[in-house]
Amino acid sequence: MSTQTKGPVIIITGTPGTGKTTHAQLLAEESPVPLKHINVGQWAKERDLYESYDEEWQSHTVDEDRLLDELEPLVAEGGLILDWHTCELFPERWADLVVVLRCDHTQLWERLEKRGYALKKIQENNEAEIMEVVLDEARSSYPADIVVELKSEGTDDLESNVARIVQWIHAWLKDREKISG
């Protein structure tokens, strides 16, 4: 568990198209403490933290060491939402909560088609969702009590999930008050 006091570090992860960024944006707005939202993929792109570009998958390969080095001081401050399609590279000590968003594969396929993903990329991401790849990564990388799996298939899920995470933040804050006071 991280030691910062400003606010928790929450990792929101899931297969592309499960609603990570939408959840993170709404959570940043509704949180009882200020939380900075970092869309890790966009953040890496803006800082050119790439090793290469994979033409076949139409995506960049992130330089994980540089990424972690640049994120470390922000994580140390706390009050952060890290939004990315993977989570296992983030050190266990960084995370106070890991939220894995899940979506029905048919709905996910449609979302990725609307984004203009290539068929091969849609198929791979759909298979990853069916096989629970991201959920398994989270469960094998972090303590079970901080990993939460949430359905993300519509507006009702979004609102319910964010409300649930806000309740968790309130409990996290109370626990910190007990520890420090």
From TrEMBL:
EC number: 2.7.4.3
Binding site for ATP: 17, 19-22, 115
GO CC field: cytoplasm; nucleus
Single Gene Ontology MF annotation: ATP hydrolysis activity
Organism superkingdom: Eukaryota
Biological process, per Gene Ontology: ribosomal small subunit biogenesis; rRNA processing
Keywords per UniProt: ATP-binding, Cytoplasm, Kinase, Nucleotide-binding, Nucleus, Ribosome biogenesis, rRNA processing, Transferase
Family annotation (Pfam families): AAA_18 (PF13238)
Keyword Kinase part of the UniProt annotation: yes
Region LID, residue ranges: 114-124
Enzyme class label: transferase
Function description: Broad-specificity nucleoside monophosphate (NMP) kinase that catalyzes the reversible transfer of the terminal phosphate group between nucleoside triphosphates and monophosphates. Has also ATPase activity. Involved in the late cytoplasmic maturation steps of the 40S ribosomal particles, specifically 18S rRNA maturation. While NMP activity is not required for ribosome maturation, ATPase activity is. Associates transiently with small ribosomal subunit protein uS11. ATP hydrolysis breaks the interaction with uS11.
Record's subunit section: Interacts with small ribosomal subunit protein uS11. Not a structural component of 43S pre-ribosomes, but transiently interacts with them by binding to uS11.
Family: Belongs to the adenylate kinase family. AK6 subfamily.
UniProt-listed PANTHER family: ADENYLATE KINASE ISOENZYME 6 (PTHR12595:SF0), POS9-ACTIVATING FACTOR FAP7-RELATED (PTHR12595)
Protein name: Adenylate kinase isoenzyme 6 homolog
